[in-house]
Amino acid sequence: MDRILAWVKRQWDMWDIRMLVLLSLTLQIILFMFGNRRKYIASLWISIVVWSSYLMADWVATIALGKLSHAQVEQVSNNSNPNKALQTIWAPLLLLHLGGPDTITAYSLEDNQLWMRHFMGLGVQAFVAVYVIVMSWTNSWFSFMSIPAFVGGIIKYGERTWVLKSVTDDKSGEIVPFGDVGELSVGYVTTEDKYVSALIMAHKLAKEFKRYVEKYDTSRFNFWSDSFMDESYDAYFWDATEVEMGLIYDLLYTKTSITYTMVGYILRSISFTCTVSVLVGFFCLLFRGGKYWHEQHYSIVDIAITGVLLAGALALEIYAVTLLLSSDWTLLWLIKHKGREWVIQLAKKFPQFFPMLRKKKWSTMMGQFNLLGFCLKQGKPTKFSRILSLVGMQDKFNMHMHKTSVAVPTDLHSTILNYIFYLSESDTATISGAQTEGFTEDDSTAKRIRFYSEPFDEQIFILHMATEMCYNHDLSESNTSPNSTPSSEDYKEIRETCKILSHYMMYLLLMRPLLLPVAVPDAQVRERIESFKSILSSSVENVTVPWQKLEKIPPLDLLFGHLKEKQESERWGILKSMWLRMLCYAAITGSKTNNHLQQLRQGGELLTLLMFFVPQSDILPGVNLFGITRKLNKQGSDG
């Protein structure tokens, strides 16, 4: 056993630094590839990979630098030089890794607040790198290659620290690059026209929103014009809001705030030149041959590892430039300096050079949670479930396994926008039939059944179960009544929309509660779910299906009884109105803005998209945010 341990120790002493520098490069590649994809991919495994790589990257690079410095101390004390000469270049390359990729500087918003820690780390790690370079300096000309490598590493690490500080200190949107990129206009016909117009609008909204982030201030800079309202305005605005989500993510979690500035261009050129010069020097070393390597005590393994590190650094630089040229920010730069018409014509002729026109800006997915199905779901306990129960994680795990997701319906954006217009104009006499269609509601009945007297979280529970009961009631009626009139396609779509919104709001309540204007303890949620489970598992006479057991629960009994008496079209029109009201209320009076900004790194949420839209709606012609807020708050207090 002692021989095995001694052998393992010898192998580790021989390969520890080499393994650490290669692992550091691997983590950088992972962060480069996946760091930016999390903004439009809502995937748990992407989050886990990026989170673990982000945490390990700094730790591995720091340990490797410490190992390098320790190796140099041993080398001096033993008066030997065994295969350590080439490792001089590894220290500044590790600084390059500590600078991180352009695609991710912060995993979460809190990381931006730690810029002082990174600044101190910059000083310490730079000192260690200089120490390694000085202690391992030889008469070989290749030792001079460590100087440009050190300059490139300091630039990268300094960029990261400066970006973290800029995001933290920004109070008025000054970190948004390019200033004013152009005026808004209408009359678009093609996809390129539409996207360029939406991009200009998104840039203006992003700059204004950065000011809004610091204080929940709805007094906004009015850059709208009456002519901006046309028949395709709703789709145009939602496109701009989606692009805005992507721009805000870039500003908060990547190096965008410095990359697209003149200083950023200069620093990028210097670091790229330094990397190329070191790689050229390395090729010159390769051409010298094996005899020269032996004379300079160069190890073949170290030469191979150095080649991998330098080739990887250059490949990542090229990849970063490719991402830079294919981003929305590059298109904004072209619009600012060349004009929107020039960009539109160029995009029409050479669409292959504008991949940003086809890129997703967020996940466009809605989480779904069917509480009725979850309560009816029976599973045999397993050893794994017992272990989870001991640590108090069984309920969370079961809910996570039960949740699903769907793509946002194409017509949902216009539905929500029409409803917001309805809320803002309902106090006037200018409501058109198209705007109010499907949004009418018997307020006296709603007050009579006391639905709106419940807390917001209880409203979600009750309305969710009422929607499920109405949905199952309609299906059972169509199956058991052969003479029943078939549902029209329009109201089938409304019914499906209500079901999706119902499952989405329940998903937010159970899986994303910080995004809602409620703070419900987990114990209270579990108690509510257990009460539904006990009712559904109880025995009730003359009940053929489990959901009918819920008809006796107040105020669900009155709500479902009232809805069941309505015609199908009116029933689903009422439910649609109620769900849209609750969705808009959650967006307006929801959680702190930071909770929504945190969600951008997990693919984004529809509610976050609404949060971006609603605070700006007071500057839209004919839309008054304060009117919406008063109306919804009044409805929330009345019910």
UniProtKB/TrEMBL annotation:
Name the InterPro entries on file: DUF4220 (IPR025315), DUF594 (IPR007658)
Cleaved signal peptide residues: none
Lineage top rank: taxon: Eukaryota
**UniProt KW Transmembrane keyword:** yes
Keywords, A to Z, come to: Membrane, Transmembrane, Transmembrane helix
Coiled-coil portions? none
Q: Where is the DUF4220 domain?
A: 51-373
Enumerate the transmembrane spans.
17-35, 42-65, 119-138, 265-287, 299-325
Pfam families xref list: DUF4220, DUF594
What is the name of the protein in this document?
Answer: Hydroxylamine reductase
According to its UniProt entry, this protein's organism is Actinidia chinensis var. chinensis
Query: From which lineage does this chain's organism come?
Result: Eukaryota, Viridiplantae, Streptophyta, Embryophyta, Tracheophyta
